[in-house]
Write a structure and sequence with these properties.
Elements (H helix, E strand, L loop, with lengths): L15 H12 L1 H11 L2 H23 L4 H6 L2 H12 L6 H14 L14 H12 L1 H4 L14 H9 L12 H7 L5 H7 L11 H17 L6 H17 L11 H6 L3 H8 L10 H21 L6 H18 L12
Length: 339
């Protein structure tokens, strides 16, 4: 009798992949809405254009592989990949950078390994790292948030998207950028003299992270993933930031709340590291996987060259996921310890 060979994600029900992917897309809506409020409609343009490019590439690849494209286009998986990537991009990224990033995610991050269920790395983070290394200037050009500058209109957004060289928007260093570039100021001086820090963790950024937290908690309630990896990552990042905070000297790693509620921290904890294909599969493995990402995020932020280190931390731990799985396999029911 032949055995059925299937690949992850393993879920029951003929519509399980579609249901999970649709739920993830819905859960991003609060965060995207808050990003649109603080940065304008640029993120929406990125998501729409990136989705169209992703669907076109998915259909092309399926045709080249001589498979029916319909089922793969209707399961929302490629839209999840493009949406997560485009959320991570600066709000007024030129269209061609969006296209390069989505192509890298879909082709290099997903289909070069065989498609959904075979990719060892998170596809969205593959595309993000390709862009971050190739176009560092554009990838650091975050616009100033509402409250510190005027939010661009829809017309300005189209100009920035299609004719970036004719758009002169106001960009501003993010709180994590300022921490990384600090040249000798005490933390109290840095946070009080830079308007970007706001009251807690950055104007706009704290609300964006809270909105993604709401979406992530809803996914937990829907049992789309377990709590192990997100909680472990946030706990490890919190502990690392506490240990690295020496009271606020110029060499301090920065306040804990800035690390938790600025940049892509919450977005990464609930929408990136919970990818069922490229992460660890056992609950114990997910705890190790998430905790290691939290530590790596802090170490790269504090001592590396990239202010928001989530993508690199995730890809490094994607390498380690099979190793973690090997040593955290649950004991077979009815079998005792090897001793």
């Amino acid at each position: 009798m032949g055995l059925l060979t299937v690949t992850s994600p393993h879920a029951h029900g003929p519509q399980s992949v579609t249901r999970v992917m649709r739920a993830v897309l819905l859960a991003t809506l609060p965060g995207v809405a808050v990003m649109t409020y603080f940065f304008g409609p640029g993120t929406l343009l990125n998501i729409i254009a990136g989705g169209l490019v992703a669907l076109a590439l998915e259909g092309l690849v399926m045709r080249l592989r001589q498979r029916q494209a319909g089922p793969y286009l209707r399961d929302y998986s490629v839209l999840v990949t493009s949406t997560l990537l485009c959320i991570a991009l600066p709000a007024y990224t030129p269209w061609w950078i969006v296209a390069v990033g989505v192509a890298s995610s879909v082709l290099l991050g997903k289909h070069v390994f065989g498609g959904l269920g075979y990719n060892p790395f998170n596809p969205a983070m593959v595309g993000y790292v390709v862009l971050l290394i190739s176009f560092p200037v554009q990838m650091s050009a975050w616009p100033a948030p509402r409250g510190l500058a005027e939010v661009p209109s829809l017309g300005d957004s189209f100009v920035a998207f299609f004719q970036a060289n004719q758009y002169d928007g106001i960009t501003m260093a993010t709180p994590l950028d300022l921490l990384r570039q600090n040249q000798g100021e005490l933390m109290s001086e840095l946070t009080s003299s830079r308007a970007q820090f706001g009251a807690l963790a950055g104007v706009g950024w704290e609300w964006i992270n809270i909105a993604f937290l709401a979406g992530g908690l809803w996914l937990l309630y829907q049992r789309i993933f377990t709590w192990h990896a997100p909680v472990a990552m946030l706990a490890a990042l919190t502990l690392s930031a506490l240990l690295g905070y020496d009271g606020g000297s110029s060499t301090s790693g920065g306040p804990v709340m800035v690390h938790l509620l600025s940049g892509a921290t919450i977005f990464g904890a609930f929408f990136i590291i919970t990818d069922p294909v490229s992460s660890a599969v056992s609950n114990r493995g997910r705890l190790i996987f998430g905790a290691a990402i939290g530590v790596l995020v802090y170490l790269i932020r504090a001592f590396g060259n990239y202010p928001d280190a989530l993508a690199f931390a995730v890809l490094i731990m994607n390498f380690a996921a099979p190793f973690i799985d090997h040593y955290t396999q649950p004991r077979v029911y009815g079998q005792g310890d090897k001793r």
